[in-house]
From TrEMBL, chain A:
The lineage of its organism: Bacteria, Pseudomonadati, Pseudomonadota, Alphaproteobacteria, Acetobacterales. It comes from the Bacteria. The chain crosses the membrane at residues 31-52. This is Cyd operon protein YbgT. The keyword Transmembrane applies. Keywords: Membrane, Transmembrane, Transmembrane helix.
UniProtKB/TrEMBL annotation, chain B:
The chain crosses the membrane at residues 20-46, 58-76, 96-120, 132-155, 188-212, 224-242, 398-419, 431-452, 478-504. It is found in: Cell inner membrane. It comes from Acidocella aquatica. It comes from the Bacteria. This is Cytochrome bd-I ubiquinol oxidase subunit I. Keywords: Cell inner membrane, Cell membrane, Electron transport, Heme, Iron, Membrane, Metal-binding, Transmembrane, Transmembrane helix, Transport.
Amino acid sequence: MKTFAKFLGLAVVLFVAIALAVLCGDYGPWYFAWLVGTTMIILIAVAGGVLFETQLETLKNGG
Amino acid sequence: MPLIDPTIVDLSRLQFALTALYHFIFVPLTLGMTILLAAMETTYVITGKQVYKDMTQFWGKLFGINFAIGVATGLTMEFEFGTNWSMFSHFVGDVFGTPLAIEGLMAFFMESTFIGLMFFGWDRLSRPAHLAVTYLVALASNLSALWILIANGFMQDPEGASFNPDTMRMQFNSFVQLVFSPDAQAKFVHTSIAGFVAGAMFIMGISAYYLLTNRHKEFAARSIRMAAVFGLISTLAVVTLGDALGRLDDLLQPTKIAAIEGLWHTTTSPSAPWLVAALPNDKTQSNSLEIGIPYVLTPLITHTFDKPIPGLIDLESAAGPHILNGIKAINALQQYGTTHDAASLATFQQYENDMGYGFLAQQNAPNQDLNAITPAEMPTVVQQTEQETIPNVFVTFWAFRIMMFLGFYFIGLFAFVAFFSLKNQLESHKFLLRLCVYSIPGPILASEFGWITAEAGRQPWSVYGWLPTFQAASSHNVGYMVFSLIGFALLYSLFIAAELYLMFKFARLGPQSHDHAAPVAGTGASPMFAKPGFAAKSWE
């Protein structure tokens, strides 16, 4: 039941995301670009932080 | 007493510009830092390392100072629409009030509620729940900006409304058109991401200060890494989106784009140079000391190689027929206001689209009465009004260039810092670190000059093509305006002083858990920071 609820929740999120993409893509291309772009900027900045930790680990291990 | 007192209009403009520019010292940091805080907290949730939580909390504290003072400076502007711009409020209040009201709800309800949860919920919420709250703060702060920029987008390109001759004001036709206006969209994306650049530079600059002073190194090295990467991508996005906004201005506001480019004569050849520098003279309508790059202007503005770009002198002449039509529209509207007859209404509707040009001609009419213009006076009134249809070129030209040059400087700075951070060689480049510290105000300045470009370039209109700025102001006396202007300048200067004092104080104190070079729980005593001269060592 829990798995089903999770599946249902994710399906709703997916539906909302697709609806948002379709609506924004048609009527607000720049708003859509902001949503996608901001998400990308955050993810790349986070990747920068995670990479820092990996580099640190490598150095700690004598790499 | 004349209907329009130019001194009152100038003082009203000065007061609004002053309060808006003061307010916009705080806004970009709010827009950018909330998103960066979300990125830092995401890293904390992914890696589980305490240092990222400390980063979120420390930069969050500085964000909190900025937010508290910034909100206060923004409140007055909404009231100024009523006190100093009552004609504007009457004319477009039906349309303009809606996004402002939604912004109020977004800013004060959503943002403030979640900021409270963000600051006080660390020990009360689970990690994912707190992360969701931080994302909601970031979203809410940017949504607040969205509604303001939708309102401003309407002033730049009035979509979704039409003039009602019975109520004598603009009325809503389509909320969807207002919200999805291309100008509002492009302006929001450009302004919001310019805020990201400001937030990134702020964090990068203070982190560079810590590295220069050998304090909080683990904290600073991580902060600078994330801020530099975040800032580099954001700056590239801002420049790209600025080009999109320029393309829209070419289509919607040719006078603004010609003023931005210092273009007095229409270009006919793709070889037209893009002016890197020049001294535009508004009186002689010419430039001196031009330094230009040929073959750049046409593709830059029109995204083609053959489309001509209209110059200001030609745009002035092209306004002539619109002014004549506008005078007919206003005269018919006045007639309709008295008689409500169908013939006057039909005449007005015939020339309605040029009504704004009629308003513009009013200040040149005898006793500011368009009905009093004799046929012999008409060519003089039209000629005088033509000259008033273009913005101040010197201000628009240079405001744009300062913003743009700063933007390209930021790309270089973020790129070098990101590169040396990735190579772990940042500390051996002291000059670069110093440059980061001195560049903290840069993106805020660029945003200010961006607004000057957008607003000065829209002149002489408060609502483009519909309502001239001088018609939008309230009737006051000079003494009242000077008194309130001085009051605002003093009060806002106090706010700035308070912000600077608190920012300097808490930035100098730094993150408390990293004092005395103590290793932070979860980060471990990294060998990178334990070794002297570690930063000079390459990752390789």
